[in-house]
Write a structure and sequence with these properties.
The chain is mainly alpha-helical. The chain is 70% helix and 0% strand.
């Protein structure tokens, strides 16, 4: 059927804002201290700028529905396109519940002190997460002409909440000074292993511009709209991250900032200093709406991956059909919503609410940062495009440099993220399951890092043209499944162990 071009320039700008930024990363950065401000700038130059150049080039040449899936397919063949799309899609499934948990935690501030009694209630977080997921799914099922409004509201809410936070921070700094000592020495990033791990999180935070291209066939004049909208949204995204982090550092010292509720804790502190307590629940509402908007944006975008995979017959035909009335990939939307709901429950198993949030965030980084997009840009940089395409200044040379920087950044981020769980042992139950279902030997006495690096190298070599042949496709698919499943399971085991240790210490 003919795809409906429901997304105009304003819609695409607001999509970039909600997909390319998230307030949860502000809290995580502020908790790391003033040096995070420098890391934000480095991450912008090393990830966001190269990623934006690659996205503009590829979407201008190939503005088809499917985005990254189509680009990898053109560069490395049909199966590489499918595996690329599958990995990107799988990496976002635990990310959606993490967004919803973040929304639920910050929504507690709407009710003031009465809401704090629910802060340790798994039932509350599960209920809110499931409700937000259901809302985003239903609106997307009705098509982008309806679903885009949730994203648009989220984009406006995110920028409005950040603007209010920045205003409160600026006034507090002027009147009272900063709670965190800011100096040149404090801004200098560290290079210890824990610092490198944080760098990988920041690299992940700068991703997101590539998501709009999955809906390239539903954007009005995508060759022009995507570059212009990204140029408008980029300073807004940078302002959210850098100015938002600085505002939280003004409000509190780093060790008092919680990664899951730090934004609203900072707002509450700043507002109470001026006697503007009524502002806190209003900003909490904006933060919650912005997270629900992000879920709507990501849910709708990644649903186009199984849609194009269904068209290519890698998935059942039902995935490759749009609803005749609403023009939405219903099978893909319902399937990924069901899997995301499962992650909402799995994230709580055996750990605390805070631990569940950390598990869901940690489960996203490694498999998202595999450098499919940069490899595709590198391979396709000499392609001859349409006369109406957006021209990249410097042409193929600029694309080559950007792709090389992006590849280097993603590989470093993968290694740093893999080091997080280097000392974590896999659980016997999960190891036995993988061994039985995938016929993969799991050594319970070994650390996770060697297998992760081996599998990542296997996948990266294939994408760069040095890896397995077609007859090894099944082994490659197993590599991806092992990577994604192990990431979630090991993060969960690590957090459960930390929670148990914390309970023992309190006892």
């Amino acid at each position: 059927m003919q795809l409906r071009r429901s997304l105009g320039p304003v819609d695409v700008v607001l999509f970039f804002v909600v997909a390319g930024s998230n307030l949860q990363w502000i809290a995580a950065a502020a908790a790391a201290g003033p040096s995070s401000l420098a890391v934000w700038l480095i991450g912008c130059l090393a990830m966001f700028v190269p990623l934006s150049i690659a996205v503009v080039f590829l979407s201008s040449h190939y503005p088809d529905e499917g985005g990254l899936y189509v680009w990898s397919k053109r560069a490395f063949g049909p199966f590489a396109g499918f595996i690329t799309g599958w990995t990107y899609w799988a990496s976002n499934l635990p990310y959606l519940p993490a967004l919803l948990y973040f929304a639920a935690g910050n929504a507690l501030f709407i009710a003031g002190s009465r809401g704090r009694v629910l802060s340790a209630s798994p039932l509350y977080f599960i209920a809110v997460a499931l409700g937000g997921l259901a809302l985003a799914t239903i609106l997307n099922v009705y098509g982008l002409q309806i679903g885009k409004w949730l994203t648009n509201i989220g984009g406006v809410a995110r920028w409005s909440a950040t603007l209010l936070l920045m205003t409160l921070g600026a006034i507090a700094w002027w009147r009272f000074g900063s709670a965190t000592h800011l100096s040149v020495a404090a801004l200098r990033p560290g290079v210890h292993i824990k610092d490198l791990i944080f760098w990988s999180v920041i690299a992940f935070a700068w991703t997101g511009p590539e998501a709009i291209a999955f809906m390239g066939g539903e954007i009005q004049r995508p060759r022009r709209t995507i570059p212009i909208a990204l140029a408008i949204a980029s300073p807004l995204i940078a302002g959210i991250y850098i100015a938002g982090t600085l505002s939280l550092l003004v409000a509190a010292v780093p060790h008092d900032i919680s990664p899951s509720s730090g934004v609203m804790d900072g707002v509450s502190r700043l507002a109470s200093r001026f006697g503007w307590n009524a502002l806190t629940p209003f900003i909490a509402l904006l933060v919650a709406l912005s997270c629900i908007g992000s879920v709507g944006a990501w849910l709708g975008a990644i649903a186009r991956i199984p849609f194009v995979a269904g068209i290519d017959r890698y998935l059942p035909d039902a995935f490759g059909r749009m609803h005749p009335r609403w023009g939405s990939p219903v099978a893909a939307l319902v399937t990924q919503a069901a899997i995301a709901a499962l992650f909402i429950f799995l994230g709580q198993g055996g750990t605390s609410v805070s631990g569940a949030y950390d598990v869901l965030v940690s489960s996203t980084v490694i498999i998202t940062l595999l450098p499919f997009l940069f490899a595709s840009a590198l391979k396709l940089r000499g392609a001859v495009g349409s006369p109406i395409e957006f021209r990249i200044p410097g042409g193929a040379a600029t694309i080559f440099v950007a792709a090389c920087i992006g590849l280097a950044t993603t590989f470093v981020a993968i290694v740093a993220a893999a080091a997080v769980a280097a000392a974590v042992h896999r659980t016997p139950l999960f190891a036995a399951y993988l061994s039985r279902v995938l016929d993969v030997r799991i050594d319970l006495t070994a650390t996770r890092r060697p297998l992760v690096i081996e599998r990542a190298a296997h996948v990266g070599a294939m994408l760069l043209g040095f890896g397995p042949n077609r007859h090894e496709d099944a082994s490659l698919a197993q590599s991806f499944l092992v990577l994604s499943c192990m990431t979630f399971a090991d993060a969960h085991a690590d957090q459960a162990a930390n929670d148990a240790a914390a309970r023992g210490t309190r006892a």
